[in-house]
Amino acid sequence: MGIVGAGVVKILAGNSSTLAKKAGKKLQIVAVSARDKKKKRGIKLAGIKWHDSALALAKDPEIDVIVELIGGDKGVAYELCKTALKSGKHVVTANKALIAARGMELAELAEKNKVALLFEASVAGGIPIIKALKEGLAANNIKRVTGILNGTSNFILSAMADEGRPFDKVLREAQKLGYAESDPSFDINGKDAAHKLAILTALAHGCRINSEAIYTEGINNVSPDDIAYANELGFTIRPLSISRMSANGIEQRVHPSLVRKTEPIASVNGVLGAVLVECDQLGPAFFTGAGAGQGPTASAVVADIIDIASERYSLPFGVAVSKLAEAKFSGIENHKGSYYVRLNVKDKPGVLASITAAFSKQDIGVEAVLQKANTRNKTAQIALTTHHTNEKSIRKVLKNISEMEYVVETPHMIRIEEF
Amino acid sequence: MGIVGAGVVKILAGNSSTLAKKAGKKLQIVAVSARDKKKKRGIKLAGIKWHDSALALAKDPEIDVIVELIGGDKGVAYELCKTALKSGKHVVTANKALIAARGMELAELAEKNKVALLFEASVAGGIPIIKALKEGLAANNIKRVTGILNGTSNFILSAMADEGRPFDKVLREAQKLGYAESDPSFDINGKDAAHKLAILTALAHGCRINSEAIYTEGINNVSPDDIAYANELGFTIRPLSISRMSANGIEQRVHPSLVRKTEPIASVNGVLGAVLVECDQLGPAFFTGAGAGQGPTASAVVADIIDIASERYSLPFGVAVSKLAEAKFSGIENHKGSYYVRLNVKDKPGVLASITAAFSKQDIGVEAVLQKANTRNKTAQIALTTHHTNEKSIRKVLKNISEMEYVVETPHMIRIEEF
Questions:
Q1: Judging by DSSP bridges, how do beta strands B412-416 and B249-260 pair with one another?
Q2: Is B63 left (phi over 0), alpha (psi -120 to 50) or beta?
Q3: In the predicted model, is pLDDT for residue A193 greater than 90?
Q4: Cα separation of A397 and A358, whole Å?
Q5: Beta bridge partner(s), residue A250
Q6: Beta-carbon neighbour count of residue B310 at 10 Å?
Q7: What is the Cα–Cα distance from A69 to A74, expressed in whole angstroms?
Q8: CA distance linking residue B59 with residue B33, whole number of Å
Q9: How far is the C-alpha of B231 from the C-alpha of A271, rounded, in Å?
Q10: Distance (Å) from the C-alpha of residue A42 to the closest C-alpha of chain B?
Q11: Percentage of chain B surpassing pLDDT 70?
Q12: Which residues in chain B are contacts of A296 at CB distance < 8 A?
């Protein structure tokens, strides 16, 4: 009964006759539970049972569907879902941490007890991307899923680009506007997006969830300079979450990425969410919408409830857990792609030549270079993009360059995502 | 067994083990039918029964699901679907003309016989927009659906904008590239898009299909000048299909529209399709992808087959036909919005003043004006955009202006769609 829970109650109450037509039956809120009974929630709870313990909901024989909106991958949220499924109750949840950590176990419980476990709201808010991957795009083999899965990160990078302001200032503004938590670390360090990506990977590639094998890099190292250079070079920087079939296995990566401005995902600004799914039959399918917030998240929760009431729900991961592949995952060290590099160097003749020589020594072609002198301290900043290469080579060249005597700062690298 | 039919066979055959996992059972092609048995289709049909008459499929007791890819709103396509539903067989179709014309009747037959009638492929190719409207966004009241539903029209307007070439030349190129039929009239005059819009309206607003109450205007009157002026004024011209809840009823409109370049739908180029759904809870949800072609359309057909095999299909229109509203529809004469107007006038002092006076006489505010002289024949072209007004007032002002002696050509108007 937090913000999303109140949103679900609002939709179910405010829209009950339309929803009854769609569900083929009346949807009734039997009981609710929350930590604080007295808290103002802006909704009427008259006529609805109150349970002091959320776990009591799972035992209430009048209840068919449990909606878990507590959060966290253990404790009450986990116990509630587990007990509900074991008691033959359907479960709807928005809890990405729980599904990323214990999705396989809970899905097996749901299958065994022939009940639904639906979690559309756990990824990309109200965008029906989980249904699309499980059902609408089911005829396709999926090559890559690319998402903007964390609204806080995307808001920060968008605002930095619009206003040329540094990360810290924009973060404080995001906190003031309510777009970032008072402790925003999970949003900014990529952990929140990684939970969501783990879920999308399993759905897109038909494999078991692996939330360990995710390379995760936050957006806090992106500087206003990077954004300005990227812009000059024809790119926008976006906080991408990528799951890609590669020759070495499935890559799962969460990191800021340069994206060409002409790509649709480059135009996804602010707190919007987006998912691009590259399909073998359909080609690219692109979904955008509100990735978070009360209405959007509640919209996804209620859609799941209607699916259950209409008895048209699919298996939690589209196929039986026993038939999900034990996929091979590929680490970031095997990544292949192009890169953006920014260097601070002493402004002396021959420096640019030595740097480009360092790249060609590793067989890396340089695609574009910008150099800007800072006359005040006789340094220069060099920003460049490379042709297609690989993670090992780029790391080698950055190491070599950082050891050169005229390099005054650790070189900074951001991956380019090409479509 | 045309292009899409062959695509369906390719997916079912090429991907059978993955699809069996998703469907929970093996999907088997029992029989096929087409006009010409000998035609080369690039697929193996060995071991598959051949029926010379498509109607024989509906009587074949081995068949559970009929996939109708014939087209047309009467004749064999209609008879096949009707007979199949009456015989208790599920039907999957890509036939927008049939669903727009006889969707209510066929849906009632499906409901009565407790079988599925699914038509995801009939609108926007492989984009799962019908599933989204029926299921993923089911918690929302929908205010407006805006689509780019005809790839040929969008290709033509995009190519005209990129290359500054006139409609006729670009159309011939589109025909050469296979993006336009040899008789492209239904694509260009908006009829094809109108069929699709009629289906989306019923799904979005929970009402009976009304394919008569659609204002339809083709793209053939859009000139390179319009595209250039729109561009200068900050807009792109797109072939939009719009279904909107208004105070006077549901508006259904298919016409070229000016869209601000910053809107996501303005960036949908070439043969891509797109649908923007404005929801009360979720806000705007935007879907893009291939709106036509063998793979994309077959992708949607196979997704419907998997839904049937998994027994998770919903009612044809999301709610029972008996519960669909008999909605009021609003004609174009009630439309409210902003407008773009282009005039050819004699280049004389006072002309612009008289024209702007004509607008203010109808209480229409002019937002922006461009005027370009043509010294060769002493005329000038004036392009302007208005503030929010209504269809009656703009038609009145255009009539008044066309009667002015210095106006050398019938004034040209294009509606602006605001989001």
A1: parallel
A2: beta
A3: yes
A4: 6
A5: A245, A329
A6: 20
A7: 13
A8: 13
A9: 28
A10: 16
A11: 100
A12: 281-283
Contact A281 B295 (CB under 8 A): yes
Short-list B144, B259, B166, CA closest to B219:
B166
Mind spelling out the 3-state secondary structure of A141-186? CEEEEEEECCHHHHHHHHHHHHHCCCHHHHHHHHHHHCCCCCCCHH
pTM: 0.97
For position B194, what pLDDT does the model report? 98
The Cβ of residue B296 has, within 10 Å, a number of other Cβ atoms equal to 27
Distance between CA atoms of B371 and B341, rounded to whole angstroms? 12
Q: What is the pLDDT of residue A164?
A: 86
Facing B310 at nearest CB: one of A131, A307, A314: A314
Q: Please, are residues A126 and A289 in contact by the beta-carbon 8 Å criterion? A: yes
- Domains with residue ranges and CATH for chain B: 3-122 (3.40.50.720), 129-290+327-332 (3.30.360.10), 335-416 (3.30.70.260)
- Cα–Cα distance for residue pair A24/B322, rounded to 1 Å: 12
Mean pLDDT for B312-335 is: 96
Instruction: Provide the sign of the torsion angle of the four alpha carbons A371, A375, A376, A378, taken in this order.
Output: positive
Q: Which DSSP symbol is given to B417? A: P
Residue A53 Cα to chain centre, angstroms? 31
Q: What confidence category does residue A177 fall into, taking pLDDT thresholds of 50, 70 and 90?
A: confident
Nearest by CB to B286, which of A7, A288, A314? A288
To the nearest 10°, the Cα dihedral for B290, B186, B90, B16? -30
- Residue B412 CB partners (closer than 8 Å, separation 6+): B221, B223, B226, B341, B342, B343
Distance, in Å, from the CA atom of A232 to the CA atom of B134, rounded to the nearest integer, reads 44
What is the Cα Rg of chain A in Å?
A: 24
Q: B255 phi and psi, to 5 degrees?
A: -165, 160
Report the alpha-carbon distance of residue A417 to residue A399 in Å, rounded: 22
Q: Do the Cβ atoms of B80 and B66 come closer than 8 Å? A: yes
Q: How far apart are CA A353 and CA A374, in angstroms?
A: 18
Q: What is the ipTM of this complex?
A: 0.96
Is there a contact between A182 and A208 (Cβ–Cβ < 8 Å)?
Answer: no
CB contacts < 8 A, A to B, total: 182
The pLDDT-based confidence of B179 (bands split at 50, 70, 90) is confident
The backbone torsions φ and ψ at residue A14, rounded to the nearest 5 degrees and listed phi first, read: -75, -20
